From TrEMBL:
GO terms for biological process: phosphoenolpyruvate-dependent sugar phosphotransferase system. PANTHER family: PTS SYSTEM N,N'-DIACETYLCHITOBIOSE-SPECIFIC EIIB COMPONENT. GO terms for molecular function: kinase activity; protein-N(PI)-phosphohistidine-sugar phosphotransferase activity. This is PTS mannose transporter subunit IIB. Residues 1-106 form the PTS EIIB type-3 domain. The lineage of its organism: Bacteria, Bacillati, Bacillota, Bacilli, Bacillales.
Amino acid sequence: MKKILLACSSGMSTSLLVSKMKSYAESIGDEAEIWAVGQDQAQQEMEKADILLIGPQMRFMKKKLAKFADELNIPLDVIDPVAYGRIDGEAVYKKALQLMSKNKNRGRKK
């Protein structure tokens, strides 16, 4: 089960993207838990996730959140603004898988 966390300013603008990502994951037979939170909850929710993707409008928080992602050994990236704007769940899901596979051999810290 892949656990993908998305974070944006309030958690609202990513809800449609979450829905599109879930639909794509189901269409290819992947089991994935995908959820969105506001920036205030991102740090605590990271403990439950395999990856954190942040909305383009939160780019300024990447450095702060990267510290916690590194401690947990989970990948963190900013969602591509074009994919975000198009609500392209397939593209964002594939990017998450790519980042998680690169991170796989590093092992998860808890």
